[in-house]
Amino acid sequence: MSEASSAGSGARPVTIDQLIALNEEIVALVRSGSPLERGLVKAGEDLPGRLGAVTKILADRMGRGEDLVSALEAEKDAIPPLYRAVVEAGSRTGDLASALQGLTRYLRGYSETRAAIGLALWYPLLVVTLAYGLFIGVVTQLVPRFREAFEQFDLPATRALSFVERVGELAPYWWPIWPIMLCWMAFAWWRSGRAVQFSESGWTFLSFFPWMRPMLKDHQSAGFAELLALLLENKVAYPEAVSLAAEATGSTPLINEAHALSKNLEQGRPAGEALRGAPGPAFSPLLRWVLTSDQQQGSIVEALRNLAPMYRKRAAYRAEKLRLFLPSIVMILVGASATLLYALTLFLPLTGMLSRLAGP
């Protein structure tokens, strides 16, 4: 057995960007008509690091007679199930390159938006970290000086001073909160970039940001519509095509609803009734309308092909909004929070002391 094969189960998971690079290599090989196993061997020699290692492993498995779907399934620890599902569905359509290109657009949109979020966050996080450190210094070093000043002038302590002083006394217990949050965010960020976690569980952290969740749903809807149209064009049975196209999106709610729809269709129920019995509104409204319509197969394919670019344009619009507005939103929130924090910890005790001094 070759070295690549022996390393198969130990291959490290690839990142989203590495998966995009691997996908583009496979698309180029499919379009050129070259044997995949030979092309992947050469690509594995050219690609760096873990991506090259995974590519060589896939080439080795295919050289021993496995098809691409089986090779990807065997390397599921390094490559996400979503990718295998797209390859399987694309193989059924006879147009694997088109299916993989649709996935590339989805992955690239996710990766670019993730990078935009990172650029929007790093400076505010630095500001918050500095403000947090200064806050600790104020409540532990400066506030006790205020207390001494009150005592020297024989003034009773204000409520604000007593509260802030108590916060400073408890600092040994609460100061690790922000470092722990930073570590959690760093872990969540790292996890969101791993291809093997490319699902709702993997990008939960990113879904907290505005426009991110609907943008990903639009990409999933576009991929579903595009792949379902390809499957139906190649005479794949409608219930099976719906399940295959849904699995290629990686969206658990959409997959569950599609499987329920397929099961109801196989039992002979009309399309509208079949989808009404499916769990949850995972399908977007227009997609649901197309799936439940009683049109002929050709008109359904045409409708799906019209929907895919619409969803992609909407996803691109949301991604652009996120890139433009997220930095401003974050900075406003950080600035307002820091200002309020220092007003409470510094100026309230100071104004309280001045008020007591000026009083009778």
Automatic annotation (TrEMBL):
<comment type="similarity">
    <text>Belongs to the GSP F family.</text>
</comment>
<keyword id="KW-1133">Transmembrane helix</keyword>
<feature type="domain" description="Type II secretion system protein GspF">
    <location>
        <begin position="224"/>
        <end position="344"/>
    </location>
</feature>
<keyword id="KW-1003">Cell membrane</keyword>
<feature type="transmembrane region" description="Helical">
    <location>
        <begin position="115"/>
        <end position="139"/>
    </location>
</feature>
<feature type="transmembrane region" description="Helical">
    <location>
        <begin position="322"/>
        <end position="348"/>
    </location>
</feature>
<dbReference type="InterPro" id="IPR018076">
    <property type="entry name" value="T2SS_GspF_dom"/>
</dbReference>
<keyword id="KW-0812">Transmembrane</keyword>
<dbReference type="InterPro" id="IPR042094">
    <property type="entry name" value="T2SS_GspF_sf"/>
</dbReference>
<keyword id="KW-0472">Membrane</keyword>
<dbReference type="InterPro" id="IPR003004">
    <property type="entry name" value="GspF/PilC"/>
</dbReference>
<feature type="domain" description="Type II secretion system protein GspF">
    <location>
        <begin position="26"/>
        <end position="144"/>
    </location>
</feature>
<protein>
    <submittedName>
        <fullName>Type II secretion system protein F</fullName>
    </submittedName>
</protein>
<dbReference type="GO" id="GO:0005886">
    <property type="term" value="C:plasma membrane"/>
</dbReference>
<dbReference type="Pfam" id="PF00482">
    <property type="entry name" value="T2SSF"/>
</dbReference>
<feature type="transmembrane region" description="Helical">
    <location>
        <begin position="173"/>
        <end position="190"/>
    </location>
</feature>
